[in-house]
Structure formats: structure tokens, C-alpha cells
Amino acid sequence: MDAYDVLVIGGGPAGYVAAIRAAQLGFRVACVDAFERGGKASLGGTCLNVGCIPSKALLDSSERFEMIRHDAAEHGIQVEGARLDLAKMLGRKESVVDKLTGGIAYLFKKNKVTSFHGLGRLVRQDEGGWVVDAAGTEVVARHVIVATGSSPRELPLAPFGGHVVENSGALAFEAVPGQLGIIGAGVIGVELGSVWRRLGAQVTILEALPGFLMAADEAVSKEALKQFQKQGLEFHFGVQITAVTPDESGVTVTYTEKEQEVTARFDKLIVSIGRVPNTAGLGAEAVGLELDERGFVKVDSHYRTNLPGVYAIGDVIGGAMLAHKAEEEGVALAETLAGQAGHVNYDVIPWVIYTSPEIAWAGLTEQQARDKGHTVKTGQFPFSANGRALGHGDPRGFVKVVADADTDRILGVHMVGPNVSELMGEVVAIMEFGGSAEDLARTVHAHPTLSEVVKEAALAVDKRALHL
Ligand code: FAD
Ligand code: NAI
Q1: In the chain, domain spans
Q2: pLDDT above 70: percentage of residues in the chain
């Protein structure tokens, strides 16, 4: 039986990064991953295959389409006859995915990580470690890392199939749906809703909660909702779905809203109501791997499960279901196994929603900071007073800095506006160092750049923004 120091089950951002880092640290490593795309093994998990990467590729293509059709004229560029070649757009997305998933296979080879394609299942504990069935081959490993990720949550009323789709289906419609329904106004709802609206769909989003993006800072979610509604996305909040009836040509959805029963007809329905951990097929029950009441693998602060030598990271342990959180856990665990001090700072995990305008934040919202007992001061600065944003022709939104009034330490930064995803780097770096609003305000920012809005918002904390 082949023996490894580390065997990783799952080749998504958590698993493949853990495998590479463990190999860099001198461990003998193998990874078993079951994902298939187009009938072939494809490393990279949800993120690379049917998540982060293809959704961003389509967001980018669809945004270009919208800009050419609606915004170019404002820049003095007259374009006639722009039309959509959806098959080509989807093909480009797939080629981006091919490149990146192939890149993981290359990195495995480069780092001498043995790759198995198929299911990984914990079999039994042996003297040499854990025996794992890796795609039909029994191997033994001193350390096993469970990184099996998550899958879309199904609405019991609306099982996936036909015109009712989850993220994979929603990234591959063969034609633009005339009427697109979306259940869940979360991250997938607004990102993929934006893609298909830009390509011509009439999009209706049905959300159970009474408000929009309630995890974000209120000022940001309010501004984002205003912008999305202006673009034509139709939202219904506080709804309860009572029936979903698919047929050959579409789906009929019945829901209650403000105590009224409403029936709507859609060509396609995306159900994006969160994700559930993947533990089926892992042999969890047979070996006694402990799960919590929602099915996530239970771990301590060092990613140890209840089984000695078995660890878990990424979406399957819950918390923020984000690729960069999963990756950092992979690095921290591999380093801990090598006797180093691996650590993830969960207080500074950036969130980005890649709509237009983009939404991004890290740290506490103003309300969370107050609830935690901080005396808070805030500074806000709009992109409409920034030269670069005006030059781009996209001056929507603002940056808001939340700081502790006594210490000036930055507690959170919240943004809605153009390319704010790229403004998060400096924010998380300064927060990692426990920086203050004054630190951010006194850092020289290049002119003219969008990043000056971050600096001005930090200046505004002390009521001394220069350009407002
Ligand atoms: P996964 O990526 O789910 O990987 C787990 C892997 O394990 C899969 O390949 C699975 O097939 C495999 N597996 C499961 N069980 C077994 C088994 N028993 N044996 C072998 N293999 C197994 N996050 C971001 O940070 N930014 C984004 O822009 C972003 N966009 C997203 C867009 C969409 C549409 C979706 C759905 C998600 C998005 N996410 C994004 C979330 C991100 O994809 C996940 O947080 C991330 O993929 C989690 O990584 P993971 O390695 O824990 O799990
Ligand atoms: P989500 O948790 O972001 O949003 C789900 C929404 O559905 C919530 O607003 C919830 O209130 C609503 N909902 C739940 N049950 C409902 C019901 N019965 N009827 C109506 N509404 C209901 O989950 P989503 O959008 O499925 O995405 C899953 C996860 O994938 C995200 O939480 C995020 O972690 C990750 N992701 C990250 C992205 C990014 O970083 N840019 C992009 C896409 C996904």
C-alpha cells in the first residue's frame, strides 16, 4: 500500500493549496478529487470550475457588452450593430477555466503531489496512519485533510433539474432567458442576475429576508440596491415561496408577499439560497467523524477533527464560504503540521461582490462595531468627487471607514463603487497591522487613482477630507 505523509481529500482552493504548501514543506503528499467537467477530471473544485472563475469571466464579458451598447456613446464612441454571440462568450469562459484548472494539475506535478481522480473515503485507522480509499486504491497517510467543500442548497419545493438550476446551470444557459427568476438575493443572486440582465433577460429576484444584503454595512447595501434597481433588476423582499411548478417550457413560482399571493412565470429559475457541506461519500459515519447539527465537519482552532490525524478546512467546516478563506486555512494547516505557527485572522477576511458597482468590505460594520461596545467614528467619501472615477465615467458609490473613536484603530472598511475589489488590498494590509484611520490618511496615494477615495474617507473620519 502506498504511504503518504499527507493525503488531501478534495482539490478545491482549500485542498489544492494545502497539498502544494505541504509538499513545499517537504511532506510526501497526495490529493484525491472527484470533480469532473465535461466528463474529465478537473482540479480546482467549485471555485475554478463552476464558481469564482467562470462567474467573473461572464461578469466581465457581460459588462463589456453593456458598456459597448449603453456607455460608449457618452465617451464619444458610436458603435452600431453590437450583438451577442453567447456561444462564443460561454466558450471564452470555459477556456479561462481550462487554463486555470490545467494550471493546478501543472502545480501538482511541479510540487510532486500525487493526484488521484475519484472519491476519497476514510476506511480505518492503522498503525501507519489512516487508510483511505483514494479513487479505488487503498493508500495510507499519517495526516488526512478533509477539504470536500460545499454544494448548492436545494429548496425542497424546487429540486434542481430542467429549468430549475443551481450555479453550474446558471453559468451555461444556451440562450438568454427572456424572464429569469432567482430565489435568494445573496451573492450568487446579484452576480448572476447581473450577468443575465446585461445580456438581455428580465430578472426578478425573490428574497425571504425583509432587506437586502443584511450582512453588509447598511449604507452600502442601501446604495447598492438603489443602483441595481436603477439597472432594472426587480427585487421582492420578505417573500415566502409556496409552490414551484416546472414544465417543459419554464417554471411557475407562487409566493406570498405582504400577505398577497403572487404567481410569476419564468423561462429559467436559479435557486441560490446558500450552500451545504459535502460529506456524503467520505465515510464520515462509518469512522465516526463528528459533524455539527448543520452537517459541517467539527474542528478546533487548529482544524483538528475528533479523529486523531484527521483535519478539515474550507467550506466543509463552515464560516465564510470564500475561496481565499479556504486557501488561507490550507496554508495554515500545512504549516501547523510542519510544526510552524499557521494562523488565519478571521477578523480581516475581505468580502467582494463583483457586480457593477462592486461591493467590498472587511471588518465590522458600523452597527456591529457599536453592538460590540466601541465608540465609533466614521468617514465617508464619494467617488463622484474623484477625478479618476469621473474620467472612467463611473462615479457611483463611496468608501466608508469605521474607526474606534478612542484609539482611531480601523474596525471596518466598506465600499460600493467602481473596481473596489482592487482597493481591498491596502485596506486588509493596514487592518492586519492594526492600523489607524490616521495611518491610512497619511499614506501617499497616487493621483489620479480610485484609491484616493480610500484615503479621503480615512481623512473624513477626522472631518478633514480635502476634496469635499
Ligand atoms: P470546493 O471548491 O467545493 O472543492 C471541494 C472539492 O472536493 C470539489 O472538487 C469536490 O468535487 C471534491 N470532493 C467532495 N467530496 C469528495 C470526496 N469524498 N472525495 C474526493 N473529492 C471530493 N468565493 C470567492 O472567494 N470569490 C468568488 O468570487 C466566489 N465566487 C463564487 C461563485 C459561485 C457561483 C459559487 C458557487 C461560489 C463562489 N465562491 C467564491 C465560493 C468558493 O467557490 C468556495 O468558497 C470555494 O470553492 C471553497 O473551496 P473548498 O476547497 O473548500 O471547496
Ligand atoms: P448567500 O448566502 O449569499 O445568499 C442566499 C440568500 O438566499 C440569502 O439572502 C437568504 O436570505 C436567501 N434565502 C434563503 N432561503 C430562502 C428561501 N427559501 N426563499 C428566498 N430566499 C431565501 O448564498 P448564495 O448566493 O447561494 O451563495 C453561496 C455562497 O457562495 C455565498 O454565501 C458565498 O460564500 C459564496 N459566493 C461568493 C461569491 C463572492 O465572493 N463574490 C460569489 C458567489 C458565491
Answers
A1: 3-152+276-344, 176-272, 348-460
A2: 100
Residue pLDDT, tens place only, 300-354: 999 999 999 999 999 999 999 999 999 999 999 999 999 999 999 999 999 999 9
Under the banding of pLDDT at 50, 70 and 90, the label for residue 448 is very high
Topology agreement, domain 3-152+276-344 and domain 348-460:
no
Residues assigned a catalytic role: 447
Q: Is residue 1 very low, low, confident or very high in pLDDT (cuts 50, 70, 90)? A: confident
pLDDT tops 90 at residue 127: no
Rounded Cα gap, residues 359 and 352, in angstroms: 6
Give the distance (Å) from ligand 1 centre to CA of residue 150: 6
Secondary structure class of 358 (helix, strand, coil)? strand
Using a 6 Å CB cutoff, which residues line ligand 2?
Answer: 155, 183-189, 191, 206-209, 241, 272-275, 321-322, 352-354
Backbone angles phi, psi at 465, to 5 degrees: -60, 140
Per-residue pLDDT tens digits for 58-105: 999 999 999 999 999 999 999 999 999 999 999 999 999 999 999 999
Q: How far is the CA of 319 from the centre of ligand 2 (A)?
A: 13
pTM over 0.90: yes
Whether residue 285 contacts residue 297, with contact meaning beta carbons closer than 8 Å, is answered with no
Q: Report the residue among 33, 47, 153 best suited for mutation to probe ligand 1: largest number of ligand atoms under 8 A from its CB.
A: 47
Cβ-based neighbour number of residue 348 at 10 Å: 17
Q: Which ligand is nearest to the CA of 297?
A: 1
CATH topology classification for 3-152+276-344: FAD/NAD(P)-binding domain (3.50.50)
Q: Ligand 1 centre and the CA of 329: distance in Å? A: 14
Q: Which residues of 121-157 are buried (b: 16+ CB within 10 A; e: fewer)?
A: bbbebeeebbbbbbbeeebbbbbbbbbbbbbbeebee
Distance CA(319)–CA(351), nearest Å, equals: 13
Mutate to test the pocket of ligand 2, among 58, 188, 195 (most ligand atoms within 8 A of CB): 188
Query: What is 348-460's CATH superfamily?
Result: FAD/NAD-linked reductase, C-terminal dimerisation domain (3.30.390.30)
Using an 8 Å Cβ cutoff, are 164 and 244 in contact? yes
Q: Which of 275, 296, 324 should be mutated for ligand 2, with most atoms under 8 A from CB? A: 275
* Ligand whose nearest atom lies closest to the CA of 46: 1
Write out the CATH class of domain 176-272. alpha beta
Single out the residue of 426, 422, 464, 462 nearest to residue 445, CA to CA: 426
Atom nearest to 214 CA in ligand 2: 9
